[in-house]
Specification:
- There is one protein chain.
- The protein has 183 residues and is α/β, with parallel strands linked by helices.
- The protein is built from five helices and six strands.
- It has a three-stranded parallel sheet.
- The longest helix has 27 residues.
- It is extended.
- 11% of the residues are buried.
């Protein structure tokens, strides 16, 4: 056997059947859809349709609550941080922030930042710059001789309002400069 002689087994690759291409093909006229009814028409989705009766998924009561204002923090335990430090995957010099924890593989997600939790034991003196920390985590870091700096995250609506205000102030200043130039 040579490389140029390699080919698939017989019947391994079949081209798709092109339906509705004349009566001689065997799948002409109705193209295998039978006659009439919703399933024979195009653009029909009847999954969950119960003949007009209220579908089961609509009869069941709604449950739970989804808070649209909830913060998304990447939660990291101190024990996990110590384990990564012992494995020499995290540099202990300087401040440890979201980017450093993400690079070490500890912080997944967390668009609103990192929150430190106190599970586990921390033996190394570290300085953190995070979005939040539990009381136990704060005590453990300070006991090890480290420090925690909590960064305040700006709310997007406040940032947009501030930006809008700056743009408005710039327009007013331009108008004032043009009117003083004309006078």
């Amino acid at each position: 056997m040579k490389l140029n002689e390699i080919k698939d087994n017989r019947g391994a690759r079949q081209s798709r059947v092109r339906v509705g291409r004349g009566i001689g093909s065997g799948l002409g006229k109705t193209a295998g859809r039978g006659q009439k009814g919703a399933k024979s028409r195009s653009g029909v989705s009847i999954a969950g349709f119960e003949g007009g009766q209220m579908p089961l998924h609509m009869r069941l009561p709604k449950r739970g609550f989804n808070n649209i204002f909830a913060k998304d923090y990447a939660e990291v335990n101190l024990g996990a941080i110590q384990k990564v430090i012992d494995a020499k995957k995290l540099d202990t010099k300087g401040t440890i922030d979201h980017a450093a924890l993400k690079a070490a593989g500890l912080a997944r997600g967390g668009k609103d930042g990192v929150r430190l939790l106190g599970k586990g034991e921390l033996k190394t003196k570290l300085s953190f710059k995070v979005a939040g920390a539990s009381k136990g985590a704060r005590e453990a870091v300070e006991k090890a001789g480290g420090s925690i700096e909590i960064i305040e995250r700006k709310v997007p609506s406040e940032l947009a309002a501030a930006k809008k205000g700056k743009a408005r102030d710039a327009r007013i200043a331009d108008k004032a400069a043009k009117s003083s130039a004309k006078a």
